[in-house]
Write a structure and sequence with these properties.
Largest sheet: 6 strands, antiparallel
Helix content: 10-25%
Order of helices and strands: HHEEEEEEEE
Mean pLDDT: 82
Number of strands: 8
Oligomer: single chain
Radius of gyration: 22 Å
Distance between the termini: 48 Å
């Protein structure tokens, strides 16, 4: 009888663990919209390449911080035209900027220089 109870308990535990694994949301579903890149980048006080750098963000996975969530939590909206910038010294000029949320402060990123997607 004791063997039977022990076996039922271990089966019950395995089934519960399987149920938890099967119902856990994927990492993509948990994340929120944000910006990251494969290189270090700056978030600025305004939509201008000459604006003060509020935070230097590390390449994703290489330091802290390595991403910033978007100001608009549902999607990365609110783009605006600002000063011209280049992502590399010989790259094309762009002028669109996207607002991000740095601990409750609105900061701006040169949006052609980073990627947007689910982060956290």
């Amino acid at each position: 009888m004791a063997k039977h109870v022990t076996r039922l308990a271990s089966l019950s535990g395995a089934l519960t663990a399987g149920l938890l694994i099967a119902t856990a949301p994927s990492a993509q579903a948990i994340g929120v919209p944000g910006a990251s890149a494969t290189h270090d980048w700056n978030a600025r006080a305004s939509a201008s390449a000459s604006s003060a750098v509020v935070v230097r963000v590390h390449a994703y996975g290489t330091g802290n911080p390595d991403y910033i969530v978007c100001w608009e939590k549902e999607h990365c909206a609110g783009k605006k035209t600002g000063s011209d910038y280049r992502c590399s010294s010989s790259g094309a000029k762009h002028n669109t900027w996207t607002p991000l949320d740095w601990h409750g402060r609105k900061v701006w990123v040169a949006d052609k220089c980073v990627g947007f997607g689910r982060v956290e």
